[in-house]
Amino acid sequence: MTPSARGDLFDPACPTRRLLDRIGTKWTSMTVKILAEAAPDEVRFANLRRRIPGVSQKMLSVTLQSLVRDGLVTRRVEDTVPPRVHYRLTALGTSLESALAVLRTWAEEHMAEVDEANQKSER
User: Fold this and answer.
1) Is the pLDDT of residue 7 over 90?
2) What residues form the membrane-spanning segments (predicted)?
3) Which CATH number is associated with domain 28-122?
4) Statement: residue 2 has pLDDT above 70
5) Statement: residue 41 has pLDDT above 80
6) For 80, phi and psi rounded to 5 degrees?
7) Which H helix or E strand runs over 26?
8) Of these four, 79, 103, 122, 123, which has the most CB atoms within 10 Å of its CB?
9) Gap between the Cα atoms of 94 and 98, Å rounded
10) Coil vs helix vs strand at 71
11) What whole-number distance in Å separates Cα of residue 99 and Cα of residue 84?
12) pLDDT tens-digit profile of 54-87?
């Protein structure tokens, strides 16, 4: 990363931009939240899917693959038929959950204002 990239959301090397590119989906934040609530226990894929309304099997699979690749989640497969797949947040993933919790708090406190402004702009 170049020194100028730090804090410059317009620079593709900016850490904030790179993070938002990776975790900026609703499926990611929901998955991290569910895994954080279960910590330190693991959560099976099927249980995650049941707890995330509207997520497809493929989208959840892609989301989890990304979280595992980024070191935020660990994956464990039981050698059964069919295989049972379990997920758990890593220490890094747990630290991300803390940041996402701040964002959720902000949303709970301010989304009514955002929605109101949105409605006014539509008139």
Assistant:
1) no
2) none
3) 1.10.10.10
4) no
5) yes
6) -125, 175
7) helix 26-38
8) 103
9) 7
10) coil
11) 30
12) 999 999 999 999 999 999 999 999 999 999 999 9
